[in-house]
Amino acid sequence: MGKKFILLILGGVMVLSAHDLSVHMSLGEKTFDVWKEFDYDFYEYITKHSWPGEDSVQRTLVRKFYYIGLTFPDMFWSDAQSIIRELIDSLHGVSGLKDPFKIKDETNVQVQIPIEFSPGDNSHNLSKLWRMAQHAKSHGWTPYEKSLIYGSLMHVIHDLYAHMVMQPTLFGYGRVFDSDSALSQILLAFGERYHEMFSPTFINNWPHFVKTLYASKLIKHTPAIIQDACCFYREIDEAGRVTTWQNIDFVPVEKFVEAAHAVGWEIKNLTRERLEAYLHGWAIFTFLLYGYRSDGSDIGGLLAHPNWTFEQYLHFVLDIGFEREPHWIFAALPEWLQKIIREAAHQYLMVFFPEGLKEYPWPEYFESVANFDEFWRAVPEELKPKLQAEYERWRQNLRYWEESDDGNPRTPRMRNSYADETKVAQELTKFYRESLRSGPNYYAEYMEGLRLDAWTIGRKAGLLAGLYPIPSDQYPRPPGVVSIGFSEVGKNGVWVYTNIETEEEKIIYLCWDIFFKGKILVQFCGRKGDGSVVVLGQKGYIFPTHWERRNEYLGCDVHDAAVNEDVVEIFWRIQAIDYPYPTILQSDYREAYWQSPLVYENKLYQVLFKEGDPTRKPSEHPFYNNGSKYYWPYTIRIYCLLRPVNAEIKRITTNQVRLTWTDRSGKETGYRIARKVEGEDWDTTYATVPANTEEFIDTVTVAHRYTYKVK
What are phi and psi of 554, to 5 degrees? Predict the structure, then answer.
């Protein structure tokens, strides 16, 4: 049992670290004011300090459940539930255990049943959580009753901006290429992995939320708050009897279930008893992730100490706990079991963090291919077959990042690139507040009636930005893109993405909805027949100190541009304002695509960027459904005359064919016929015919294949 126990703990740490729970709690602790407008009573209660006593205990409990809520949606992932289930099951039935490892029968029974969401739904449903918060507020629930719901809602709002603004804009901050190994993942999956691994290493308020999360209520003559280990809640009465999480019905958990049912959220097997059972295991795991040593030091564990080697982390794991009983979390176990676990801990920690990895701080093993290979060589041979595929994908992507780095100011493979991310997350507070005020319609993964795939566009914008170099971090990072493209009738109009033919005034609008910070130009550009670029309109923004969102548009008569400026194609571009005005994003990505074989020989870019071709067919809609992944962004060809259609060819004699078409224009001066004989090049000036002509007769040779074009 001892070996299985330590393996479960290590597995949980490795899985749950990727969820970046610490950033949610750190950010939540710094941004209580987001609730001031939405629910002033809750804001006042959670921020007001009071003298020690019952009121102080109650306020601590509100914060405790708010922090639990800030991790709560991730607890519902099937992998997390599975780990909790195995841990609780392993501890259950072992004699001699003390709290919190002594598992009641009912707790074990409850976690054997998974909490399941309907297909296509999950625990991060912003609409449902926002409606639950509205329900709680409108029914006059107390801050304590609302705390778990509010924390869960804020977790999902944090994730929204992290996934669609922060992660893609940092990934594309300078030239960087993903490898084709990313094809089997979600867009920017490896960028997200690094963002969530390295950003927490810059958290500066660990004690503020960790100590509150593990504060307990001590009932004597005057209630007071004490610190505990491995359990969210412990009550000690005047006789010294301990009541723990497993023995108490918590109002915030009950209210979460009630609100979910009230808004019609179909969650299978969701009950208060089951949630509290899962939360018992969740408490143990989060303490192992972000706890402290037996003397109260080193709060935050591995992520809070980027200078630790893996060997130092080993010693931390063996000494986590608190000075109050049990002074070390495993002191709750019988002595014979402690001995087994201590021995197993060293043995199995060396499996995941091999003894040979003593030289570098742990982040350095993920910053270069050479160090990553050293990490892999230290992994025991018996584990390599199961990890081989993941190692190869990770290594391939890391290699591409390394080889495409030509002075990238914030390359995603380096820990220092994430130094400002917790600060950026806090700078986005006004948007969290707006999401609370306006609900899911303000900014969601899918917008415009569940049609515009904003999540995919935001992530692909990061991949697109990675095609363009940035001279230094003095220039702004790329914007977070909700949408940007061309429309016929302004920002609320119909998207245009195929060739435009017009013989009269034709106003086309460039529409954008972006989040950004810094000094940027949004440009409506035209490419002329000789390949040069003309700016047809532009809008400048100067916000060097804070993030803004702009949903605006520019109009242009593309027929006039085609006739008077020889514009044959339109596209959009975002540039930095300061010299040398580097391009940050651009929809005509041809030149950037063909600059490196790491891109044009890469299956990922061939698939997602249509092999370097930014033009789109009617069936290749760049915004809706799955089109955003494959066909956004794009350019549009402009034709100032209506082109001929319905071209057909028929043989009229052995040596003659008739080429016919439909003339749709009244302004042409003639038609040019191009011909290609099989095995030869195109003759683009083969013949011309007068205006208003709709046929051409050509002499051919038997046994040859001919192809024609009419312009």
Answer: -130, 140
3-state secondary structure 662-689: ECCCCCCCEEEEEEEECCCCCEEEEEEE
Nearest CA to 114 out of 149, 155, 77, 69 is that of 77
User: What's 477's DSSP letter?
Assistant: P
* DSSP letter assigned to residue 199: G
| Gap between the Cα atoms of 13 and 7, Å rounded | 10
Q: Are strands 636-639 and 500-501 parallel, antiparallel or unpaired?
A: parallel
How many Å apart are CA 104 and CA 102, to the nearest integer?
7
Residue 674, beta-bridge partner list: 709
**Of 650, 706, 657, the residue nearest 683 (C-alpha):** 706
Helix ranges (DSSP H) in 428-584: 429-438, 454-465, 558-565
Q: Is 46 helix (H, G, I), strand (E, B) or coil?
A: helix
Place of tokens 């992290």: 162
Residues ≥6 apart with Cβ < 8 Å to 433: 34, 37, 38
On whether the CB atoms of residues 710 and 644 are closer than 8 A, the answer is: yes
Measure CA of the first residue to CA of the last residue in the chain; give whole Å.
Answer: 79
Dist CA 123 CA 102 (whole Å):
29
Q: Rounded to an integer, what distance in angstroms lies between the CA atom of residue 699 and that of residue 189?
A: 59
Nearest to 218 by CA among 208, 229, 226: 226
Residue with tokens 């893109």: 481
* Tokens at 458, concatenated: 């935001």
> Using CA atoms in the order 420, 285, 151, 192, what is the torsion angle rounded to 10 degrees?
40
Q: Are 658 and 687 in contact (CB under 8 A)?
A: no
pLDDT, one tens digit per residue, over 83-139 is 889 888 888 877 777 777 888 999 999 999 999 999 888 899 999 999 999 999 999
> Other C-beta atoms within 10 Å of 594: how many?
11
- Cα separations in angstroms, 150 against 32, 50, 67, 215, 302: 11, 22, 10, 20, 28
Q: How many CB atoms lie within 10 A of CB 390?
A: 10
Residue corresponding to tokens 């808004």: 263
- As a whole number of angstroms, the distance between CA 469 and CA 461 comes to 14
3-class SS string, 322-389:
CCCCCCCHHHHCCHHHHHHHHHHHHHHHHHHCCCCCCCCCHHHHHCCHHHHHHHHHHCCHHHHHHHHH
**Neighbouring C-alpha atoms within 13 Å toward the C-beta of 306:** 18
Neighbour-count burial of 248, counting CB atoms closer than 10 A to its CB (0-12 exposed, 13-18 middle, 19+ buried): middle
Residue located via tokens 């015919």: 689
Q: pLDDT tens for residues 228-238?
A: 667 787 766 56
Q: CA–CA separation, 87 vs 559, rounded Å?
A: 68
pLDDT digits (tens, 9 = 90+) for 193-204: 999 999 999 999
The answer to whether 217 touches 61, Cβ cutoff 8 Å, is: yes
- H/E element, 136: helix 126-138
